[in-house]
């Protein structure tokens, strides 16, 4: 199965650039940024978010937080981002959302129909170094464990599954499992104590980052 998606690029306030990727059943909104002074953009935050902003001590975390709210503001105005008991974000009356970030980029995926999990991972050797922590024995035989790209895709896919699992204390090696259907469509399985779940994941590379998202609902096996 081939991924069919369309890109829309919209330039907003410098130093930000916004892209939109439309898949069949969801959309991914990306905001890229260079170094910026986050205090110059606090007008995009709610009063509660502004208070939270000043609790962050590190510039990178402040930039990430503000960039996410700038993207939210572009899409939903000042609608507040809430978090459920598992830390999953949502915006009331806007369907399901998922947020991810990497250096210089934040992403927000939206689905009106089903729970969604988005992950953005930069291509870097870290995935190779950590592969023993997230690969099952079966996955070691089916994926190229020497490929930085392939291991980054596996890592990204499991991070997306983690967001869909609905619980914490997950062991990536045994509770989140992957199988390729094609180079860009993978099957993910979530092994929960009360049910085994299955979901189809779209995985693609854009601008040096692996992007993973489910474009269909979670199924109970």
Q: Main sheet, how many strands, which sense, barrel?
A: 6 strands, antiparallel
Class by alpha and beta content: alpha+beta
Q: So how many helices?
A: 7
The fraction of residues in strands falls at 25-35%
**What series of H and E elements makes up the topology?**
EEEHHEEEEEHHHHHEEEEE
What is the 3D form? globular
Measured between the Cα atoms of the first and last residue, the distance is 21 Å
Q: What does the radius of gyration come to?
A: 17 Å
- Average pLDDT works out at 91
- Helix-residue proportion: 25-40%
Per DSSP E runs of 2 or more residues, the count of β-strands stands at: 13
Give the low-pLDDT segments. 1-11
Notes on the protein architecture:
The chain is of the alpha+beta class and 221 residues long. Helix content is 28%, strand content 33%. The protein has seven helices and 13 strands.
Present the secondary structure layout.
Elements: E1 6-11, E2 16-22, E3 27-33, H1 47-53, H2 59-76, E4 82-83, E5 89-90, E6 96-102, E7 105-111, E8 118-122, H3 126-129, H4 131-134, H5 137-142, H6 148-165, H7 172-175, E9 176-180, E10 185-191, E11 196-206, E12 209-214, E13 219-220
Antiparallel strand pairs: 1-2, 2-3, 3-7, 4-5, 6-7, 8-12, 9-10, 10-11, 11-12, 11-13
């Amino acid at each position: 199965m081939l991924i069919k998606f369309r890109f829309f690029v919209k330039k907003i306030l410098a130093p930000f650039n916004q892209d939109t990727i439309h898949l069949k059943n969801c959309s991914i909104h990306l905001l890229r940024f260079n170094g910026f002074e986050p205090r110059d953009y606090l007008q995009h935050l709610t009063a509660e978010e502004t208070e939270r902003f000043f609790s962050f001590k590190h510039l990178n975390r402040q930039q990430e937080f503000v960039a996410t709210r700038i993207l939210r503001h572009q899409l939903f105005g000042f609608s507040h981002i809430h978090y459920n008991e598992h830390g999953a974000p949502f915006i009331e009356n806007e369907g399901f959302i998922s947020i991810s970030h990497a250096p210089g980029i934040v992403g927000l995926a939206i689905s009106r129909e089903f729970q969604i999990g988005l992950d953005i991972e930069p291509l870097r050797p870290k995935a190779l170094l950590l592969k023993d922590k997230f690969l099952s024995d079966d996955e070691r035989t089916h994926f190229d464990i020497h490929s930085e790209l392939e291991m980054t895709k596996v890592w990204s896919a499991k991070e997306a599954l983690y967001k869909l699992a609905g619980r914490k204390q997950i062991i990536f090696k045994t509770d989140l499992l992957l199988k390729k259907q094609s180079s860009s469509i993978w099957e993910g399985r979530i092994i929960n104590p009360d049910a085994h779940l299955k979901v189809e994941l779209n995985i693609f590379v854009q601008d040096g980052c692996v992007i993973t998202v489910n474009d269909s609902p979670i199924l109970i096996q």
